[in-house]
Amino acid sequence: MKPYIRTGLIWSALMIAVMVASTVWTLSALPAEGPIPVHFSLDGTPNRYGTRLEVMLVFSFVPVIAAIVSAILAVAPSLDPRGANIDVGSKAYIAVWIGVMIVLTLAHIGACMVLINAINGTPAGPGIVRGIIAGCALLFVAMGNYLPKTRPSFMFGVRTPWTLSSDMAWEKTHRLAGRLFMIAGGLGFIGAFVMNGIWLALQLSALVFAAAIISVVYSYFAWRGADDHDEGTSLTV
C-alpha cells in the first residue's frame, strides 16, 4: 500500500471513530419516549421532530458517507490511468483527503451538539453553523493552496476535456483555480461570521461555484493557447 494512501486511511479511521463515539454519546442522551428534534433552523431552533429510530438513522449517515468517501479515495489512484501523476502530487491529494475527513467530523460533532442543546431546551444559536461553514471555507483555502501542485489525472483536480488533453492547459488552469479557491475560501470564512439568515448558508456555496465555473471556462482558453493541445490523429477504423 502506498504511504499516502495508508496515511489517509489512518486519518479516516480516526475521524470515523470520533464520529461513531459522538453518535453513541448523543443517542445515550436521547429521551426514551416522545418526539425528538431532527431538523433545525439556522439559529439552532428545532423545526421538525421525529422518532428515536429516525435520529439513529440520520446520525449514522455522516460516518457511513465518510467511510464511502475514504474507500473511493483509497482506490482512485489505482483505477486512474494517470495514477502515477496522483503519486507525484500526493501531498495535494492527502491534504484534501484529510481536510474532507476533518470537516465531516466537525460537522457531525456540531450536529450532535445542536441536538443535545435542543433536548436540554437551550438552542445552540447560529454559532455552530458559523463554525461549520468557517471550517469548510478553510478547507477550500487549503485545496486552493495545493491545486497548482497537482498533475493531470482523471480523478483529482479541474478535469475538463481541455485540461486532460494538454499538460500546459492543466498547469495554467490549476494555477488560476488555486488562487480563485483560496479567495473564495477566504471570503467564505469572513462571511461565516458577518453574514446572517439565508446568506449565511449560501455565501460559501456561491463563491465556490463561481470559482469552479471561471476555472472551467478558463481551461478552454488555456487549451486554445497551449502548444501541446491534442490535435488527434489521421487514423481511421
From TrEMBL:
<keyword id="KW-0472">Membrane</keyword>
<dbReference type="InterPro" id="IPR026272">
    <property type="entry name" value="SdpI"/>
</dbReference>
<feature type="transmembrane region" description="Helical">
    <location>
        <begin position="176"/>
        <end position="194"/>
    </location>
</feature>
<keyword id="KW-1133">Transmembrane helix</keyword>
<feature type="domain" description="DUF1648">
    <location>
        <begin position="14"/>
        <end position="60"/>
    </location>
</feature>
<dbReference type="InterPro" id="IPR012867">
    <property type="entry name" value="DUF1648"/>
</dbReference>
<keyword id="KW-0812">Transmembrane</keyword>
<dbReference type="GO" id="GO:0009636">
    <property type="term" value="P:response to toxic substance"/>
</dbReference>
<protein>
    <recommendedName>
        <fullName>DUF1648 domain-containing protein</fullName>
    </recommendedName>
</protein>
<dbReference type="InterPro" id="IPR025962">
    <property type="entry name" value="SdpI/YhfL"/>
</dbReference>
<feature type="transmembrane region" description="Helical">
    <location>
        <begin position="128"/>
        <end position="147"/>
    </location>
</feature>
<feature type="transmembrane region" description="Helical">
    <location>
        <begin position="55"/>
        <end position="80"/>
    </location>
</feature>
<feature type="transmembrane region" description="Helical">
    <location>
        <begin position="200"/>
        <end position="221"/>
    </location>
</feature>
<feature type="transmembrane region" description="Helical">
    <location>
        <begin position="9"/>
        <end position="30"/>
    </location>
</feature>
<dbReference type="Pfam" id="PF07853">
    <property type="entry name" value="DUF1648"/>
</dbReference>
<feature type="transmembrane region" description="Helical">
    <location>
        <begin position="92"/>
        <end position="116"/>
    </location>
</feature>
<dbReference type="Pfam" id="PF13630">
    <property type="entry name" value="SdpI"/>
</dbReference>
